[in-house]
Write a structure and sequence with these properties.
The complex is a heterodimer of chains A (about 350) and B (about 1100). Chain A is an alpha+beta fold and about 350 residues long. Chain A folds into two domains: about 45 residues; about 240 residues, no CATH class. Chain A is built from ten helices and eleven strands. In chain A, α2 packs antiparallel against α10. Chain A is extended and about 90 Å long. Chain B is of the alpha+beta class and about 1100 residues long. Chain B is built from 40 helices and 32 strands. In chain B, α33 packs antiparallel against α38. Classes of the chains: A alpha+beta (about 350), B alpha+beta (about 1100). The interface between A and B is large, with 96 and 86 residues. Chain A: InterPro entries: CDC50/LEM3_fam.
């Protein structure tokens, strides 16, 4: 008999909070003051942030020089791929009305170049770039092997289409003698790219390491001779190359090219005055109706000179405050009504 | 399913006609006649779907017949074959998961069926072969084999009883597993073979049996009295011999077994509708992208810029083919918009969620020591969508514990004061006799009560002799009969059992009277009466009949009726169940004739039912009325409160009962289905038979009622539910015969018209009572309402076998674990111990389940539109080249890991309103009626919200990327950083959106919401922190960490999340303000109302039935 009653007992559902849907729970209770103060605080934060961002963006000096049209003759020359070995230079003078203080960065900017095409992004070999397997060109079609079958290093469409203009900035201190502005080409890549993701194949010297491979068809020099001045900046570890290999998100994009070496005249930054870009024009853009430009820019803590973030914050803050003011009005009205009712 | 396998096992069904011939023991009847081995199916029961060999192909085939699965399979195949941007793993893995889980579940269920089948098929049975007892497995039995069955064994196939161990060739059988009736039934051996008691003698039998072809008809009657059905159990008989006539899949049990048809909930239909909308969006997106791609590529420098030359293969491919593959690729790229994981989550939510019902302590009943039972988890949310409730009366609204209240003999009222505690009754209660009828009549009446029934005696094992009257327990399929027998006992006549076909009664003088039971004319729902024919010790042959007044009155001498009739009507008004008792003396000559007719009818092979009925009809005439009984059927605990709550929730409650109108009506008043203010419209034989031509009168009434109702309810059918409270309430009463007149007068062209008018009337009435319903009619009504315009959701609740048809027919079937067997509970979708549990089941559980699953569905579509819209927009910036915005890992993990658990936890735990509030304020139920949360409005809201958020994510990040650098050290970000920023904002936004929607924050919610976000961050660091050797592309390497090193990105992510959620936050605050002011207004109103407070409903006890007497 006892056993039976135990049996019955076991069929009684457990009286646990979970099973009875009685878990202790917090229910959000909105109080008018809480909501209003929350809104005001959020609005204040957004407005403040927006103003700070706008101010810092305003402090940035940026100058962009488009040189496709200015260097029209060079552009025309590059229309025809057979003229690849003909050198073409082009000089673009410009005037800097204000000093660019602090660190100055030089970018090149491409218009209408789709680095984000599906096939294009795929066309690279990470194991090759890691230096582990130089012969692995599996994904690199149509730039995997040269006509005679030797694997290309670095293979693929991205590497093949590297930006190969040389841009030299010179400063005309007096009207006659131009001084070449000292520029650094180091530390323009992500640290991890330079030190982990890209590795040269190990060997005594670079040229022997890349033996058995050939240069990409559009390149004039093999990968181990990219930088004649700094031997450490060659092979897959070339900074310009690494920067190029990080594909841009949109067809109009900037890529970091050089940064100002703050010595001599340029300790403070770029002083106002006459400058000129001396460009060795190699990269064809008119073939896809694109454009090229050089951008000089200073930066602040928040990065480049875009007003977007500041404006967005300001607008959001304003809207939030607007909402909170109208809510306050409604709240006061309701309160008044209630008071009236109680008086009745 | 059974049908199919039936055909497979019994090939050549079409060849068989009329009857089959079975040779007993498979011996040819005569030597001269050539024995032709007939082919019948073997005795294997196959209820399983699969075998080990065909499981994989068959199960896969069945699963891919579902549209959604098939769609995902296509997507997967496209991904495998066509060169697509996303890896096949992204859609293959979830699909594989879904398929595997379902296959395992179905495989397990089938394994259970196999086990059950094997248990039946491999059981040992004894077969008489060549005069020897041979042990065999049950599945080896062939038609014609002679089978020996021992006590308490179940019959292995349908048998014809040849002989039993008793000399009279009877055996007792319970059919509890077939129809839920637990009483013992007596079956008789074929007369000619009664004497064959041993295996040897049986073997000498040479006979052929001519019998009907297998028929599934189980309910009319359980076969003639010498057919023993598979599944029934032999009781109180040592052993029997029988010959197998139907085996395996041809047995009545197998033919009657039908898998419950899959019920689909309204939410599921909505999901499918959404699915089609999203499929359309998907196809449009893919088509737009494909078109634009080719427009864009029409200029050569876009088609093949110098930096991205085509491979040889690409150049050679046909343009049309390329367009086609491009279209497919886009489809694959956007396919996440239809989330495969939603199906998994919905299934899991339903499965896990249904536990809350069976776990609910409030559904636990102390008496039967059981809680609620969930037979299907597919319909949880349907409980929140019910429009119509069809409830049985007996055992559902009422207790079905009958108590003999009083009786009337020749118009004299006898009322017992003694109350019985339980099954064991004593005769010591003092009885009050108001005034006495003639002593002889009195004894005759009580003898009739003692004889005219099918009650069995269950003897207590401790006591030796069954005649020891102190320890008798009555068992019967009908509690009325027990109440009556016990009632007779109170007056001194005790039924002590049946011995050798003799019913034994202990009379008031403690003497045993014996009556030979000649025939039992069983009760059925059409005749609504039963009779016994007995022979007294003196040799007189008597017929006792008891039945419903309407079934008995026309069959007795007229002059006797009046007094009894008044008595019966008064009893019915008090809510008692009444039965009239009549008797008749039969002369031996007449008996001879009757006996012959009865046997003839019983032996008939064709139209047995009709013949039997006709004979019964002939016999039960010209009887003498002795009296009537009144049995009280107590209302169930809180039945009235439950009905009231359901009413307030805007549900229409219909009572469908087999009982007579007066009884049913009084029950309806008692449980407040009808209020005193309710005006009753009656469509009963009573109201209609006043006129000569029934149909004209019916038509008149219908028109009149409609006019009345239409006048009261102006066209505003929308606010009908709310209008109830203000307008005059109407209740409709209709009985079975009138209903069939309305539904079945098919020769009349206006029948359709009748039906539509009738439905119009029904829809406008707050409560409908249908009495005198046959089980089939109950289902008919349910089907009729189901097919109304707007297809309302119906719920049936009942406890007996007669409610099964209606339970199966309606959208949701609820069984009461009552006293009339477990048939209803077994066939139901949900079973609860009591009617009162319906309140919490619908108002709290149903409401919550609906809100949960509706939110789940909307949220799933929302989050995937958010997810895929930026991907779509990105195509405009990457030359429509199918470049995915997100990394493959993110594409795969988004639905599986990052955003799945919070919504699952929400959909299991959310209580946007307290359970107590939900049960105490039934009006809340109206808020979600008509699938309110999945209508076009909410759907558009969610869709636009998703579109807005997706646009914010994409363009916000796009404008952010217009600057030279996001870092102070001028480093530049690429496309994967862009995608990761969008994705981060996306994951945070959709998760926080859910957090905003959560009203019930348990620790689980906190854990999964914040845990998911933390997991996302952790995973991103992990995924980007290692050069994965198995990946060809190291796209994500350090992207996430580098992204977070920029202050601008942080600011942008925070801002974009805030902007995306801003409309939602505003909406919540506004809703809160409105609710608050509404509550304030309400409380003000309440304060002013309280002065003029009036009792809404008069307490039950205060109300007398005289209130409605003017309506009657």
């Amino acid at each position: 008999m006892k056993r039976i009653s135990e049996d019955y007992q076991s069929r009684l559902p457990d009286n646990t909070a979970l099973k009875q849907q009685q878990l202790p729970a917090y229910r959000l209770q909105l109080s008018a003051t809480g909501v209003l103060s929350g809104f005001f605080a959020a609005g204040a934060f957004c407005l403040g942030m927006g103003i700070i961002l706008i101010l810092s963006a305003k402090s940035i000096k940026e100058i962009e020089v488009k040189y496709t049209k200015i260097c029209a003759n060079c552009a025309e020359l590059r229309e025809d791929a057979t003229n690849f070995d003909k050198e073409c230079t082009c000089s673009i003078p410009f005037y800097l009305s204000e000093t660019m203080k602090g660190n100055v960065y030089m970018y090149y900017k491409l218009y209408g170049f789709y680095q984000n095409l599906y096939q294009y992004i795929l066309s690279r070999s990470n194991s090759q770039l890691l230096g582990t397997d130089l012969k692995d060109v599996g994904n690199c079609a149509p730039f995997s092997n040269s006509h005679d079958g030797t694997p290309i290093a670095p293979c693929g469409a991205i590497a093949n289409s590297i930006f190969n203009d040389t841009i030299i900035l010179s400063y005309n201190l007096n009207s006659s003698i131009p001084i070449e502005v000292p520029m650094l080409r180091s530390k323009i890549t992500w640290w991890t790219d330079k030190y982990v993701k890209f590795q040269n194949p190990s060997s005594i010297n670079l040229s022997s390491a890349f033996a058995g491979t050939t240069k990409p068809p559009y390149w004039s020099k093999p990968v181990y001779e990219l930088d004649e001045e700094d031997p450490g900046n060659n092979g897959f570890l070339n900074d310009d190359f690494i920067v190029w290999m990080r594909t841009a998100a949109f067809p109009t994009f900037k890529k970091l090219y050089r940064r100002l070496n703050r010595i001599q005249y340029f300790i403070e930054g770029l002083p106002a005055g006459n400058y000129s870009f001396n460009i060795t024009y190699n990269f064809p853009v008119t073939r896809f109706k694109g454009e090229k430009s050089v951008v000089l820019s200073t930066l602040t803590w928040s990065g480049g000179s875009s007003l977007f973030l500041g404006l967005a914050y300001t607008v959001t803050g304003a809207v939030t405050w607007l909402a909170s003011f109208s809510m306050m009005a409604i709240h006061l009205m309701l309160k008044k009504k209630k008071m009236l009712f109680i008086q009745d | 399913m059974f049908r199919r396998s039936f055909n497979r096992f019994c090939a050549g069904e079409e060849k068989r006609v009329g009857t089959r011939t079975v040779f007993v023991g498979n011996h040819p009847v005569s030597e001269t006649e050539a024995y032709i081995a007939q082919r019948f199916c073997d005795n294997r029961i196959v209820s399983s779907k699969y075998t080990l060999w065909n499981f994989l192909p068959k199960n896969l085939f069945e699963q891919f017949r579902r549209i959604a699965n098939f769609y995902f399979l296509i997507i997967f195949l496209v991904q495998v074959t066509v060169d697509t941007p996303t890896s096949p793993v992204t859609s293959g893995l979830p699909l594989f998961f879904v398929i595997t889980v379902t296959a395992i579940k179905q495989g397990y269920e089938d394994w259970l069926r196999h086990r059950a089948d094997n248990e039946v098929n491999k059981r040992t049975v004894y077969i008489i072969e060549n005069a020897k007892r041979v042990r065999k497995e049950s599945e080896k039995i062939k038609v014609g084999d002679v089978v020996e069955v021992q006590a308490d064994e179940t019959f292995p196939c349908d048998l014809i009883l040849l002989s039993s161990c008793t000399s009279d060739g009877t055996c007792y059988v319970t059919t509890a597993s077939l129809d839920g009736e637990s009483n013992c039934k007596t079956h008789y051996a074929v007369r000619d073979t009664i004497a064959l008691h041993t295996a040897e003698s049986i073997d000498t039998l040479r006979a052929a049996i001519e019998c009907e072809q297998p028929q599934p008809d189980l309910y009319k009657s359980l076969g003639p009295e010498n057919l023993l059905l598979k599944g029934a159990t032999l009781k109180n008989t040592k052993k029997i011999y029988g010959v197998a006539v139907y085996t395996g899949m041809e047995t009545k049990m197998a033919l009657n077994y039908q898998g419950k048809s899959q019920k689909r909930s309204a939410v599921e239909k909505s999901i499918n509708a959404f699915l089609i909308v999203y499929l359309f969006i998907l196809l449009t997106k893919a088509a737009v992208c494909t078109t634009l791609k080719y427009v864009w590529q029409s200029t050569p420098y876009n088609d093949e810029p110098w930096y991205n030359q085509k491979t040889q293969k690409e150049r050679e491919t046909l343009k049309v083919l390329k367009m086609f593959t491009d279209f497919l690729s886009f489809m694959v790229l956007f396919n996440f918009i239809i989330p495969v994981s939603m199906y998994v989550t919905v299934e899991m939510q339903k499965f896990l969620g249904s536990f809350f019902i069976s776990w609910d302590k409030d559904f636990y009943d102390e008496e039967i020591h059981e809680g609620a039972l969930v037979n299907t988890s597919d319909l949880n949310e349907e409980l929140g969508q019910v429009d119509y409730i069809f409830t049985d009366k007996t055992g559902t609204l009422t207790e079905n514990s009958m108590e003999f209240i009083e009786c009337c003999i020749d118009g004299h009222k006898y009322k017992g004061v003694a109350q019985e505690a339980d099954g064991l009754s004593e005769t010591d209660g003092p009885l009050t006799y108001f005034d006495k009828a003639d002593k002889n009549r009195e004894e005759l009446f009580l003898r009739a009560l003692c004889l005219c029934h099918t009650v069995e005696i269950k003897t207590n094992d401790a006591v030796d002799g069954p005649t020891e009257s102190a320890k008798l327990t009555y068992v019967s399929s009908s509690p009325d009969e027990i109440a009556l027998v016990k009632g007779a006992k109170k007056y001194g006549f005790t039924f002590v059992g049946i011995r050798n076909g003799h019913m034994r009664i202990e009379n008031q003088r403690k003497e045993i009277e014996e009556y030979e039971l000649l025939h039992t004319l069983n009760f059925d729902s059409v005749r609504r009466r039963m009779s016994v024919i007995v022979k007294t010790q003196a040799g007189d042959i008597l017929l006792f009949c008891k039945g419903a007044d309407s079934a008995v009155f026309p069959r007795v001498q007229n002059h006797e009726i009046e007094l009894t009739k008044a008595h019966v009507e008064r009893n019915a008004m008090d809510g008692y169940r009444t039965l009239c008792v009549a008797f008749k003396e039969i002369t031996p000559d007449d008996y001879e004739r009757i006996n012959r007719q009865l046997i003839e009818a019983k032996m008939a092979l064709q139209d047995r039912e009709e013949k039997m009925e006709k004979v019964f009809d002939d016999i039960e005439t010209n009887m003498n009325l002795i009296g009537a009984t009144a049995v009280e059927d107590k209302l169930q605990d809180q039945a009235a409160e439950t009905i009231e709550a359901l009413h307030a929730a805007g549900l229409k409650v219909w009572v469908l009962t087999g009982d007579k109108m007066e009884t049913a009506k009084s029950t309806c008043y008692a449980c407040r289905l009808f209020q005193t203010s309710t005006e009753l419209l009656e469509l009963t034989t009573k109201t209609i038979e006043e006129s000569e031509r029934k149909e004209d009168r019916l038509h008149e009434l219908l028109i009149e009622y409609r006019k009345k109702l239409l006048h009261d309810f102006p066209k505003s059918t929308r606010s009908l539910k709310k209008a109830w409270t203000e307008h005059q309430e109407y209740g409709l009463i209709i009985d079975g015969s009138t209903l069939s007149l309305i539904l079945n007068s098919s020769q009349d062209s206006s029948s359709n018209n009748y039906k539509s008018i009738f439905l119009q009337i029904c829809m406008k009435c707050t409560a409908v009572l249908c009495c005198r319903m046959a089980p089939l009619q109950k289902a008919q009504i349910v089907r009729m309402v189901k097919n109304l315009k707007g297809s309302p959701i119906t719920l049936s609740i009942g406890d007996g076998a007669n409610d099964v048809s209606m339970i199966l027919e309606s959208h949701v079937g609820i069984g009461i674990k009552g006293k009339e067997g477990r048939q209803a509970a077994r066939n139901s979708d949900y079973a609860v111990p009591k009617f009162k549990h319906l309140k919490k089941l619908l108002l709290a559980h149903g409401h919550l389940y609906y809100v949960r699953i509706a939110h789940l569905v909307q949220y799933f579509f929302y989050k995937n539109l958010c997810f895929i819209l930026p991907q779509f927009l990105y195509q405009f910036f990457c030359g429509f080249s199918q470049q995915p915005l997100y990394d493959a890992a993110y594409l795969t993990m988004y639905n599986i890991c990052f955003t799945s658990l919070p919504i699952l936890a929400y959909s299991l735990l959310e209580q946007h309103i307290n359970i107590d509030t939900l049960t105490s304020d039934p009006r809340l139920y109206m808020k979600i009626s008509g699938n309110a949360m999945l209508q076009l409005g909410p759907f558009l809201y969610w869709t636009f919200l998703a579109a807005f958020e997706g646009t914010v994510f994409f363009f916000g990040t796009y404008f952010l990327f217009q600057t030279s650098s996001l870092e102070e050290n001028a480093k530049v970000y690429g496309n994967w950083t862009f995608g990761t920023i969008v994705f981060t904002v996306l994951v945070f936004t959709v998760t926080l959106k859910l957090a905003l929607d959560t009203r019930f924050w348990t620790w689980i919610n906190h854990f999964v919401i914040w845990g998911s976000l933390a997991f996302y961050v952790f995973f991103s660091f992990f995924w980007g922190g290692i050069i994965w050797p198995f990946l060809k592309q190291q796209r994500m390497y350090f992207v996430f960490a580098q992204m977070l090193s920029s202050v601008s990105t942080w600011l942008a992510i925070v801002l974009l999340i805030f902007i995306s959620l801003f409309p939602e936050i505003l909406l919540i605050v506004l809703k809160n303000v409105r609710r608050r002011s509404a509550r304030r207004n309400l409380s003000c109103k309440r304060a002013s109302d309280s002065l003029s407070a009036r009792p809404s409903v008069r307490p039950l006890l205060l109300r007398t039935f005289s209130d409605e007497s003017n309506i009657l």
